[in-house]
């Protein structure tokens, strides 16, 4: 396996650091629009693994499918891992195929709201542009494994595991994500790309119900407090547009699929304010003679999330709340989760926990693809593959040594 | 009187429209960094007053005292009226004096927080740089009438009136400003310069007490709901840094002076969010190869307040809550106020009510200076002059026909 990693931001950098601990691939090219950033990542890997000759840096323009295809050919890449923000999904997706490589990403092609009824009906859905090419991929014998970060990604693996091994009937697959992170020296310092966070939080959130199909709500709808494990505790969660809601129902049987993000009230107020002022917009505005995208200015005002690891403390939790009927016919409710302490991810790979948790899963998936344990053709989500080998490799001390948990919760009281 | 108006934004435009109804001056040059904007204002005046030959447009760089002095000499101006944002107070103030003209403004030189204790002690206060030149102005026989908009401005005139005619002892002079404006088609559209609003709302608010002098608080401190007249009703008000608190105690006897702004909870949340993200900053940040000031980007994302008049509805109220002992020795509490309905300011002068209400007062003051009813030398606030002729000219049908109100309120219960 020869990997072309595109993007050396927080997640891309962590991908390289994690992969360096494993032997399943021959080479990994770290590429970025900014070559210096790619070189910094390769230098960081070399510092920790001085004898590892598998890593090189290159410059790639992710906005051009031709440039991506050319980079695939230049490096003889067998797999492209997309680790840039979702604006660039389609050129990288198309470029990988043109160049002749399989493809993985952690966020899918962007949605566009319904032109008249944005808060009740879906328009173009997350991933629609990619999933439309499924048959062509099958015909070519090529694989695109889409949404294989932590969420989407590990959350989808959990869903497949719950459906296969824990439940006879699933009422709801509900992703619930929360954290108790603090960054010393900053009042406000998001741990993940603000560009992506704005995109997912301000788009109309999407919900799936078996009888209704996909539909949308107002942003920040239906707040609920979820009690996260690992000492994180209760966090206010709201509906957010996320890939899992689009992926899970395509392969798994469930009455309802939701995604709720534990943004916390402060972060919600900031996002609402940015939206009110129009600072979430991506179209450039003229400011005293220069043109800038307001959302890029927001990102420029905040610290780079990839640089916050040393100042950060606390834990982040990704997980799936599954409600339904157990294999024994009794009501069951479980929370499958993966909790990362920032102190651990910094110690193991020198990466902050939010980007590290995202980066871990595509590396696990690449290893399963390299060994042939996972195989498939088409445009597939993580729930299209057997969950058990993934969860085993993730947790095993000989694998990635990053345990996941199953918390048995009180079943919900029956509806009256 | 030959007036050089600097700034053809919302307030400057309204100044020209209001002044065109009056005959006390020989000429008024509307100047701006952007000549087209100045020409637009002159054209708007000509449209309403086709025979009025007193208005001309010119280009002036308000950031250069030399350029301002040169414009004063070029036009033989006797008075400079500064109607640009407060970043440019000092070059215009200095340029007027160098050119040989008297000076008026509606906002004073900027403050700088105390370097160690910003939320308890003042650093450089609003207007300090201007007031430091008082003796030099007196020696030259020159006048700078500072803070003669609506707030500061009319609020200071109200304070002088209350001290002279309504109270024997003043416990508190408390400016209270609120509105019930809505702008059709916009979720969020501030009626006044967002640059200035951010500046005044995010700086540490200043309070004056007789025994303590000036001191500062945290932004948005001590929220209180004030019931505004004219159908506006209750609005949440918080402490804001404002010139009145610096001006009133220099000429008037009061135990305490405060300024509270009826921002409303939504606007407060937006300002807090902008501050958290760092979008209130004025120092340029690098955004994909270009440098921009984040606060300028915020302004560029919002509609130009001067253009909102047609879509705006509601009223704005500027006023002063005075607490103390009446001339009869009894506890007294009055609210002196000036309420403007946007429909009226649009009908009379084609200007939206917030900028119109600000612009009205320097024109009244210029007329009193032209007639010699007001005269003085030095750097003086509005409370240094007799309030009665100002309030009469403001309200009189032969004057500006814009009435003010005195509301007698229940005196506060005595302290236990």
UniProtKB/TrEMBL annotation, chains A, B:
**Per its UniProt record, what Pfam families does this chain match?**
Sacchrp_dh_C, Sacchrp_dh_NADP
Q: Which InterPro entries match?
A: NAD(P)-bd_dom_sf, Sacchrp_dh-like_C, Sacchrp_dh_NADP-bd
Reading the lineage from the top rank, the first entry is: Bacteria
Q: Where is the Saccharopine dehydrogenase-like C-terminal domain?
A: 149-395
Q: Which ranges carry the Saccharopine dehydrogenase NADP binding domain?
A: 3-144
What this protein is called in its record is Saccharopine dehydrogenase, NADP-dependent
Which organism was this protein described from?
A: Microlunatus flavus
Native organism taxonomy: Bacteria, Bacillati, Actinomycetota, Actinomycetes, Propionibacteriales
């Amino acid at each position: 396996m020869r990997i072309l990693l595109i993007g050396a931001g927080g997640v891309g950098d962590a991908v390289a650091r994690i992969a360096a601990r494993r032997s399943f691939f021959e080479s990994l090219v770290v590429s970025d629009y900014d070559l210096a950033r790619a070189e910094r990542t390769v230098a960081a890997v070399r510092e920790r693994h001085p004898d590892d000759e598998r890593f090189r840096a290159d410059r790639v323009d992710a906005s051009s499918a031709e440039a991506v295809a050319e980079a695939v050919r230049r490096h003889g890449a067998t797999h492209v891992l997309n680790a840039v923000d979702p604006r660039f999904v389609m050129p990288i997706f198309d470029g990988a195929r043109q160049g002749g490589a399989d493809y993985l990403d952690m966020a899918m092609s962007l949605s566009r709201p319904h032109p008249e009824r944005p808060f009740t009906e879906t328009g173009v859905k997350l991933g629609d542009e990619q999933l439309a090419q499924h048959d062509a991929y099958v015909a070519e014998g090529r694989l695109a494994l889409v949404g294989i970060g932590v969420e989407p990604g590990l959350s989808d693996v959990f869903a497949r595991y719950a459906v296969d091994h824990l439940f006879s009937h699933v009422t709801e697959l509900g992703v619930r994500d929360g954290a108790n992170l603090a960054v010393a020296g900053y009042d406000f310092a998001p741990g993940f790309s603000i560009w992506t966070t704005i995109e997912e939080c301000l788009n109309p959130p999407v919900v799936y119900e078996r009888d209704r199909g996909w539909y949308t709500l107002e942003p920040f709808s239906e707040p609920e407090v979820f009690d996260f494990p690992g000492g994180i505790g209760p966090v206010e969660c709201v509906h957010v547009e996320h890939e899992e809601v689009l992926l899970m129902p395509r392969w798994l049987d469930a009455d309802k699929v939701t995604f709720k993000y534990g943004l916390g009230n402060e972060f919600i107020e900031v996002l609402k304010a940015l939206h009110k002022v129009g600072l979430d917009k991506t179209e450039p505005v003229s400011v005293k003679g220069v043109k800038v995208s307001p959302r890029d200015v927001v990102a420029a005002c905040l610290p780079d999330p990839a640089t916050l690891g040393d100042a950060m403390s606390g834990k982040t939790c990704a997980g799936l709340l599954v409600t339904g009927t157990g294999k024994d016919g009794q009501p069951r409710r479980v929370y499958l989760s993966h909790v990362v302490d920032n102190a651990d991810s910094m110690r193991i790979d020198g990466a902050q926990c939010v980007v590290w948790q995202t980066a871990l899963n595509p590396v696990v998936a690449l290893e399963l693809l390299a060994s042939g344990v996972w195989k498939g053709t088409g445009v597939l989500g993580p729930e299209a593959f057997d969950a058990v080998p993934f969860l085993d490799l993730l947790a095993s001390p000989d694998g990635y040594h990053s345990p996941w948990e199953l918390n048995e919760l009180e079943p919900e009281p029956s509806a009256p």
